[in-house]
Design a protein that fits this description.
By secondary structure, this protein is an alpha+beta fold. It contains 14 helices and 15 strands. The strands form four sheets. A five-stranded antiparallel sheet has the order 1-2-3-4-5. A hairpin with an 8-residue loop joins strand 10 (211-217) and strand 11 (226-228). The structure holds zinc ion (ZN). Zinc ion is lined by residues 38, 40-41, 48, 59, 61-62, 64. Zinc ion (ZN) binds next to loops.
């Protein structure tokens, strides 16, 4: 059985090459890359290099090179498939054990869910400008969100009852695909109802610009203030950073990480475009490596309350050994956070 492209990517994304190779080779950072003594030929001065940006290794002495999977395959003397399995185990990724027929069925469902998500993000975005979305537009005005911001993040507004469900059915998606997306629920009476009703909608994209989940904020004082997508075949919590796809359009040498997506969005609007959000959860190792891969310096912009301080300590623990400079932004102390971050 061959593993799918998605599985290969997941294995690679969750096994940072620097972290993996460091277990075999003593690596020293020099600029953007790491160097060490090549484990594949005899040498005295280090010509073996590892690039965290490209997630590849290369030896200038013997010419060997490749990605994290081929490194493991070479150094452990095992096949490509076994190397994938080794790395999957290391990152706690469960590999599919299904027959290949079921495999491709799952892949197909996955790609449909991505399509449902992407269609829905565009639908909500268009709907925000509709006369039906007066309350949504008032919220936009109140938050002083500009058109550029609405476009940059494809922000939107959701409808009532089963509006989205009906639209998705009309678009040709079936119930299995719609339910798997988590955008619609089926109640005890067998009725379909949209998860997000009358909410300001924030699509969450991965680094490959695919819509993986949504956040929905109320526009009044009702509870809960935020609803998020459940985990499903395209979304696992703690593996993504909100806004990284947008931030990557600009310079991300320094990356500011904040807690909530609305914080990230309003900072972006104020010109601080190198900003991502941790999506509420405490920073995970996956998110740490994602930051490391994309930035030389990470600035922690968590709230200065008790929970925020705990989040800062946790983030520092996670990032301690990743060879990444870190600063803590004192939100309360700084006179002008905008300037502080930009310079
Ligand atoms: Zn070599």
């Amino acid at each position: 059985m061959r593993y799918s492209e998605d599985i290969l990517n997941e294995v690679k994304e969750n096994n940072d090459i620097v972290e993996v190779i460091s277990q075999y080779v003593h690596l020293k950072r020099s600029g953007r890359n790491y160097f060490g003594i090549c484990p594949f030929h005899n040498e005295k001065s280090p010509s073996f290099s590892v690039s965290p940006d490209k997630q590849i290794f290369h030896c200038f002495g013997c010419g060997v090179g490749g990605n994290v999977i081929s490194f493991i395959s070479k150094i452990e003397g095992i096949g490509f498939k076994e190397a994938i399995e080794t790395l999957a185990e290391r990152a706690n990724i469960s590999l599919p054990v299904n027959t290949s027929q079921e495999d491709s069925k799952l892949e197909e469902l996955k790609s449909k869910v991505f399509k449902v998500n992407s269609f829905t993000a565009d639908y909500y975005h268009k709907r925000l400008y509709d006369s039906k979305s007066k309350i949504g537009q008032e919220y936009v005005k109140k938050r002083k969100l500009t058109n550029d911001t609405l476009e940059a993040y494809n922000l939107g507004f959701s409808g009532n009852f089963d509006e989205l469900y009906q639209v998705l059915r009309k678009e040709g998606f079936n119930d299995e695909e719609i339910l798997e997306s988590g955008l619609v629920n089926k109640n005890d009476n067998g009725k379909y109802i949209d998860r997000y009703r009358n909410r300001f909608m924030i699509p969450i994209l991965d680094v490959r610009n695919r819509v993986i989940a949504f956040g929905g904020r109320v526009i009044d004082d009702s509870k809960p203030k935020y609803i998020n997508s459940p985990e499903n075949i395209v979304y696992s919590k703690g593996k993504h950073l909100f806004g990284l796809n947008v931030a990557k359009k600009g310079d991300t040498k320094k990356l500011l990480i904040v807690e909530g997506y609305m914080d990230a969005i309003s900072l972006h609007q104020r010109g601080i475009t190198n900003v991502v959000a941790s999506l509420g959860t405490a920073l995970t190792t996956n998110q740490g490596w994602l930051l490391r891969k994309n930035a030389e310096e990470v600035i922690l912009g968590f709230d200065s309350d008790g929970a925020g301080q705990t989040a800062i300590i946790r983030a520092m623990e996670v990032m301690q050994n990743m060879g990444c400079d870190m600063r803590v932004l004192q939100m309360t102390g700084a006179k002008d956070p905008d300037e502080y971050i930009i310079k």
